[in-house]
Amino acid sequence: MASRREFLAWSALAAAAGTAAPRLMAAEKGSDNTSSGSTADPDAALPGNPPLAMNRFPPEHKYGVGGTQLGNMYRVTSEEEAMGMLAAAWEGGNRHFDTSPWYGLGLSERRLGRFLFDKDPSEYLLSTKVGRLLTPDASIENVANWKGNLRTNYRYDYSADGVRRSIEDSLQRMGVSKIDLVYIHDLSPDNEDMGQEWEQYFEIARKGAIPELERLRDEGIIGGWGMGVNEIAPSLAAMDAGNPDVILQATQYTLLNHRDALDRLFPACRERDVSLVIGAPLGSGYLAGSTHWMYKTDIPEGFAQKRDRISAIAREHGTDLRTAALQFTAAPEVVGATIPGARTAEHARENQASMTVEVPAEFWDALKSEGLIEEDAPVPNKA
Ligand SMILES: NC(=O)c1ccc[n+]([C@@H]2O[C@H](COP(=O)([O-])OP(=O)(O)OC[C@H]3O[C@@H](n4cnc5c(N)ncnc54)[C@H](OP(=O)(O)O)[C@@H]3O)[C@@H](O)[C@H]2O)c1
């Protein structure tokens, strides 16, 4: 019987060409992207990353798709919606997909894997996460924001063995032969299962998950690793403890909150040559018009007024809030991609359109002159 190490090594052999592909595609094509387009303009190309960008793992495009809605975040996403969303994203040229065992306790990975099954692995960039191992449990219905009859439980494991087991489980659950990026998930003080104990979990990861992911990268089994977290402190800690390639920083860089990331995160990433992927660029829906801000319905003071004002200025300049929110998060040179979640095909097409339309420079000037975004925040075409 194959050992876990052998299992991963076999899948690495099968995947070797695919894992390197996003970088090669970026280098070969440069910014001359040929992706097909959006609802707004079927010929519009997704914005690309420059060839041989400074970052170690630049995805081909500045835009990817999040996997939380595939995992029934807030409400059950039907199979039809899930597959329709993925098909629309693919048709629009999107080739960067993020998921996690945590999203719907395996549901998001299963759906994404089903969709990717007949796709050429060299054509897409796939990221998933480690840190939670899943176990069958008939008594479980909903967990946290994940809805539906999940019948699955989870436990944390940031050890070296836990990471290998998690990657093996994800490969099997998705039925794919490669994973490009692996993020250490939710090892962070905002994780309600941990709180301040996150530092103890981090010590386990420092000795276990981090060196193991570096070995897996060096063996060519994964393309790169990083943190997938909602606070900045664990991202900085990972850059001290190891040599990450990409940080999936969620909830810290949006139109409405970006000062801390500009001050603490961006300089550290530049110094360490680490790319950023921006999670929750729509504030978990608030910047697309929903009532959730960062997975809660408590809206911070002043945000409603700010959102209304930015929307009004956007309309005056012929654009909209969601477009501004998405383009803002993709603008900095240190950002490799922004990955909004989408529930339906319509969302996927709309978000794609938002990433391809031109927003007038005067719009960004107006936001800065009214103090609605920070003066030193990079904006499109001036990043
Ligand atoms: N710790 C981590 O690693 C971490 C944390 C957070 C996020 N992430 C990653 O980042 C991705 C994005 O985050 P997210 O999905 O949680 O939040 P988000 O991208 O900020 O917002 C997604 C929500 O916005 C709404 N939406 C999206 N497009 C829309 C459109 N065109 N029109 C109207 N509403 C629209 C949908 O709301 P409805 O629900 O109402 O349909 C959707 O649930 C995740 O999927 C995940 O891959 C990672």
TrEMBL record:
InterPro entries named among the record's database cross-references: AKR (IPR020471), NAD(P)_OxRdtase_dom_sf (IPR036812), NADP_OxRdtase_dom (IPR023210), TAT_signal (IPR006311)
Record-linked Pfam families: Aldo_ket_red (PF00248)
Superkingdom of origin: Bacteria
Signal peptide span: 1-26
Disordered as annotated region, ranges: 25-56
Organism from which the protein derives: Kushneria pakistanensis
Keywords of this entry: Signal
Protein's UniProt name: L-fucose dehydrogenase
SUPFAM superfamilies according to UniProt: NAD(P)-linked oxidoreductase
Signal in keyword set: yes
